[in-house]
Amino acid sequence: MKNFRNNNRRARFRSNDRNFKRNGENNKFNADYSQSSNFQRRAPGRNNHNASKLIEKYNDLAREALSTGDKILSENYFQHADHFSRILNEQEKNKVKKDENTKVEKKIEVTNSESEVEQNQSVKN
Question: SS3 string of the chain?
């Protein structure tokens, strides 16, 4: 079996062709519309699904692996599901903290505006 470890070097002869462009050589559209000009996902290794769907997915895969008799693979899937359940719990905790912070900030704004109204009334009297 041949091992093509240097796949990127195999087609170097094409670089002399007028219309051939390698990745990163295309300068035709150079407008920067966002921080990432090539419009790729910011974290390409991360999955697009939300955590609850991934928990369900890995639990289903683990049950399927158990039904076929593969205990090691099922344990692997259960560990993945556990990982995403921890992520989901952390997201919920962060959401609760954020909600509490916004409530506190709103209360502070209300008390500040009330104190300003009281000060204005005392100045007028």
Answer: CCCCCCHHHCCHHHHHCCCCCCCCCCCCCCCCCCCCCCCCCCCCCCCCCCHHHHHHHHHHHHHHHHHHCCHHHHHHHHHHHHHHHHHHHHHHHHHHHHHHHHHHHHHHHHHHHHHHHHHHHHHHC
* Per-residue pLDDT tens digits for 47-66: 656 889 999 999 999 999 99
Mind giving me the DSSP string for 41-53? Answer: -S-TTS-SS-HHH
Instruction: Tell how far CA 123 is from the center of its chain.
Output: 53
pTM of the model: 0.48
Indicate the domain borders of the chain. 10-124
Contact residues for 109 (Cβ-Cβ < 8 A; gap 6+): none
* Tokens describing residue 43: 């974290």
Residues 6 or more apart from 10 whose CB is under 8 A from it?
Answer: 4
